[in-house]
Specification:
This protein has 17 helices and eight strands. With 385 residues, the chain is α/β, with parallel strands linked by helices. The protein has an eight-stranded mixed barrel with strand order 1-2-3-4-5-6-7-8, surrounded by five helices. Strand 1 and strand 2 form a beta hairpin. The longest helix has 23 residues. The two termini are 39 Å apart.
Length: 385
């Protein structure tokens, strides 16, 4: 089986929430089906749709034991080539959830008698006026979503044109000028983080937490979430220190800094940062000392801090006493954690060769990377934020 790599995109709605995921498979359909079957145990569960797009879209992809929340994405052209009969027969037999990538052959695909749950439109090849016309015309055939949306302006325009959501990473690159100072809530969380990081007296940390009741509530909610997987419920900060210790607690306090965001795209940014965090932590297993795993998690969680907090990365970090390898990676200055952050970011692109090269530098196979990425997505889904 040749290496099949997975990259991903989120589908974001007008409430700035990720309502679906889009996985792009880089490899042949037959190999992709075998790879996906091998990853069944880490497939993201729940009702949130997971679109699966394979460049070599044909009937061999249907050898995959398709989960209930998966939606197969096919271009109209797939139903018009020499293999179309086999593909149509298999789809009529298995009846999976389908998304039609609108193209010049879309009409022939619709005439084949298939039921499509979604219709996807390329925002780069259609004007806003064309999208609006298509959304109205095609509404009876499926829910409209937009692909290749590269800016916040384009995102808003596609929603106004009638799209339900847009697949894009535009929100990682805010266009507004960064603020000069942190807001009071963010500054307070940094004070608590610094106290924990320097192993301050427990009473001093508790006193700082009590200044913000919502902060204590959020911390306990995270620790007790399904993503953390504890066997008992943590009922107080003192209890958390007893069970976890300061080191693990530092990891979860780090998430609170991101939740203080006032950014319009905060929910999508949080989901992305948490996925990166868990992915980097998993990829570090066996490659760095176990004591470094929490730092890899924090590096991923903080990797979008500038977008989340609305300040430059330099300004966000200057008040924090972070280990040097974390700061170096976040500021683009290399170091131990930088290759892991680069690999996590490459999973959000569409360049198979760059992804394979980055994974190869760390000695990470496609199977291991794909497994870690799906596990990280499942982890992010289990968290409440």
């Amino acid at each position: 089986m040749s290496d099949v790599f997975i990259t991903r995109q989120p589908l974001v709605n007008r409430q700035s929430r990720i309502i679906a995921l889009r996985l792009r498979l880089h490899g042949a359909s037959g190999d992709a089906a075998r790879m996906l079957n091998a990853l069944a145990d880490v497939w993201p569960q729940g009702e949130r749709p997971v679109f699966v797009a394979c460049p070599d879209a044909d009937g061999r992809l249907l050898d995959w034991n398709i989960p209930a929340n998966a939606t197969l994405e096919f271009p109209g052209a797939a139903f018009c080539d020499a293999r179309a009969g086999e593909l149509l027969a298999a789809l009529h037999r298995q009846r999976p959830s389908l998304c039609l990538d609108y193209d010049e052959q879309a009409g022939e695909a619709l005439a084949a008698g298939l039921a499509f749950r979604f219709i996807a439109y390329d925002a780069k090849s259609q004007t806003v006026a064309q999208l609006k016309t298509l959304a109205a015309k095609m509404q009876p055939y499926g829910i409209g979503v937009a692909l290749n949306v590269d800016s916040e302006k384009a995102f808003k325009a596609t929603l106004e044109a009638g799209m339900t959501a847009a697949a894009s990473w535009f929100f990682k690159h805010p266009t507004s000028a960064p603020a000069k100072t942190l807001n009071p809530g963010q500054a307070h969380i940094i004070r608590v983080l610094n106290l924990v990081r320097k192993n301050a007296d427990l009473r001093e940390i508790e006193a700082a937490l009590k200044q913000d009741v919502a902060l204590s509530y959020k911390l306990l909610r995270y620790i007790n979430s399904a993503g953390f997987g504890l066997s008992c419920e943590i009922q107080s900060f003192r209890h958390a220190v007893t069970i976890l210790g300061y080191g693990k607690l530092n990891k979860w306090l780090s998430l609170l800094l991101a939740t203080a965001s006032k950014a319009s795209m905060a929910p999508a940014l949080m989901h992305t940062a948490l996925t990166r965090a868990r992915l980097m932590e998993l990829l570090g297993d066996g490659l760095v000392d176990s004591q470094e795993h929490d730092n890899l998690f924090i590096t991923g969680a903080f990797s979008l801090l500038d977008a989340l907090l609305g300040v430059s990365m330099e300004h966000a970090l200057e008040a924090m006493h972070l280990p040097q390898p974390i700061s170096d990676a976040l500021l683009g200055e290399g170091g131990l954690y930088a290759p892991f952050l680069d690999l996590a970011a490459a999973c959000e692109g569409n360049d198979r060769e760059a992804l394979a090269e980055q994974a190869g530098m760390l000695g990470i196979s496609a199977e291991r990377l794909n497994r870690a990425q799906l596990s990280a997505l499942a982890f992010a889904e289990a968290m409440e934020f």
